[in-house]
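Teaching note: in complex prediction, the entire set of molecules is handled at once rather than each chain in isolation. The prompt given to students was simply: 'Predict the structure of this complex.' The entities are:
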Amino acid sequence: MTNKGKMMKKLKALALATSFFVALGGAASAKTLVYCSEGSPEGFDPAPYTSGTTFDAASRTVFNRLAEFKHGSTEVEPGLAESWDVSDDGLEYTFHLRPGVKFQTTDYFTPTREMNADDVIFSFMRQMDETSPWYQYAPGISWEYFNGMSMPDLIESIEKVDDLTVKFKLTRPEAPMIANLAMDFASIVSKEYADQLAEAGTMEQFNQKPVGTGPFTFVNYQQDAVIRYKANPDYFKGQQAIDNLIFAITTDAAVRRQKLEAGECHIMPYPSPADLEALEANDDLTVMEKEGLNVGYLAYNTKVAPFDNPKVRKALNMAIDKQAILESVFQGAGEVAKNPIPPTMWSYNDAVQDDPYDPEAAKAMLEEEGVTDLSMKIWAMPVQRPYNPNARRMAELMQADLAQIGVDAEVVSYEWGEYLARSSAEDRDGAVLLGWTGDNGDPDNFLAVLLGCDAVGGSNRAQWCYQPFEDLIQKAKVTSDVEERTALYEEAQVVFKEQAPWNTIAHSKVFMPMSTSVEGFVMDPLGYHRFDDVTINE
Amino acid sequence: MLRFLFSKLLLIVPTFIGITIVAFGFVRVLPGDPVLLLAGERGMNPDRYQALLHQFGYDRPIVVQYFDYVWGLLHGDFGISISTKQPVFQEFLNLFPATAELAICAMFLAIIIGIPAGILSAVKRGSIFDQATMGIALTGYSMPIFWWGLLLIILFSGILGWTPVSGRISLFYYFPSVTGFMTIDSLLSGEKGAFTSALSHLILPSIVLATIPLAVIARQTRSAMLEVLGEDYVRTARAKGLSHKRVIGVHALRNAMIPVITTIGLQIGMLMAGAILTETIFSWPGIGKWMIDSISRRDYPVVQGGLVLIAALVMFVNLVVDLLYGLINPRIRHQ
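The expected output is the structure of the full assembly:
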């Protein structure tokens, strides 16, 4: 045999050996679901964090909340609370806890009692009681989501009525309260486990080895590589069909795709738009898609002339071809936005007419308002987001459109943290490209957070405080009747369109490629990746 | 020799001070603020922002922050990650074995291929083999690592199915980490097939990481050999009638190795840089990927602490190389 022949024989043997082990991995783990996740979780206690990657790994797998979002919807259903009563003045929420719920048994904790009111009170008080040793149980722990949702101002007290009844007293009525309690920071943790750690002097372990009531029990985390879970046999909704759940952390989208195609994982999030066609053409894969609960927008600074004039803003809106942006930047995966909330959200006002694309009329409107030789800046985000996959490209398209009506636009950008800080400034020069993905499915989470008077100088990038709009959203916030709230929000969207503080650009679609063997996966409008009720058919 | 060692050690002090200033300054020169990044699009009100700045100690004068940082380093305290809230040193220890395993394999590949290729090129100077080897070396040196890695994955994992796409071992295997080196741990675990799996996961990332050092070593070996082959003592050895193999293998090679060893030492630093990209492509949980994630999150303590730890490592390796250099070449240690 020649040297070349020997080499080929060796290579073939090596190939056989490796493919054998790859295949063995697949066969032996018939009940193991592998998810190629996009990044490492920051920790396993969901409350100190704000990123979806951490929530997928911690809150949606290991924990439950008093109320939960229904699978695949933004509607709220009972979770650890079987039911709740709201007082007539909207200031008292009484939760009746589900009896018989067990915390997970792991090799580092064995619960001696069932979940009760103490756990619920502990889960919230640790985030608001600065005197609690758990308020800062590890260096640098802070409660950004809880604070960002204004919970410390909203919650006056939390009382234990009996072992299975908890009463929240609020400082003001808050219609989205139940939806807030379905959010990740409101995950219910075990007080018994916390006490055990405090006694052992290892409180920081609370963020590394979680114990919850959720569908999966945490087994092990190899930093930046693999997270392992097993089905929780005591889960109050019944044990899951899969035995093991594995997150294989794979940060690069192209590599995730290769892993999915090679059968090394069953599901991958965030495919690169350029790969979608090839993934869809693969018979072994299915690509699920869903409208994301998001909006991408261009916010004018309504405090700076001439952008303080709604007619100027409308004229600029009419000069921009949003359909072309959708095709070019989103590759058609989404729809043109006309309202500040996405169409999948309740109270979306479909009757609102969008400003038409009409450069001639736009030019005439600007002249009518006496605006000539206008030059402006367009801020392009330096990062990719579901609501804006390529802000630089989007800004350039806008720049070309505006040039058509004689407006000279300059595209600027900053580092992400800097961008967020500078774009909040009330005297900011230029219009900002940004967007939002909903936290809790409530319209208040878009309209008040992004356009309310309180958010001027912060997340209200248009610096827009318009009293008729503000009155409507404030009234809706304290009204508990959903129909009444819907009417108020619908009207608010009409006011928004008339005043045009933003150019609403697009609501994007989110894609989820997976093996055809996966059954029961439901795409979540809030962008979570949940694996309860998922099974694999191999 | 002791004096030589002492003079080398003395150099470490100013280098260390320089590194702490660079590491501390580098992350602060970058625009962006770790506290603001914590809240993202959601934003943070100014009071909360101030409170958090205070909590992290970033509201203090920059000089105070620097001395606090150096004081911590001198006491073995590398700080706590803003993002994961874990001690930086602990994270480094968790992730370092993965990088070390990859770097050792890559260096091994680079040396066992690079040195013979360089020697042969020098001996057969001007031949097709020489030109082809140097052409390949130049290509390897110029290759963008990210593209090269992805290309290998698509070919060997995607199309041919010979190697796994990424990771350190098949997910089928699960055993506690003893040394952190997957190849060793897989042997210790006693699980059938685990070692082969770990080894198969090492192949592509090692090739990718080895590419640039291999090219550099091959080129350096060739030029060092050529220089030595023209020396009088080689001619004398030949004139004495020694065999070609003996002249090359004993008289020329040993002297040619001096600059090659220096090059290998310097490549350790290059390996750390290459590891950043290689680890990202192959989802390899090492310190390169850790640093890149931390820089994008402006995780000051991790960047400051991580850079110092990596620099200390490179300094240590260079010290060992200098000592080896002294052993091989007595003239150096007597200078």
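Point out the following to students. Chain A touches chain B through 69 residues (CB under 8 Å). The two ends of chain A are 42 Å apart (CA to CA).
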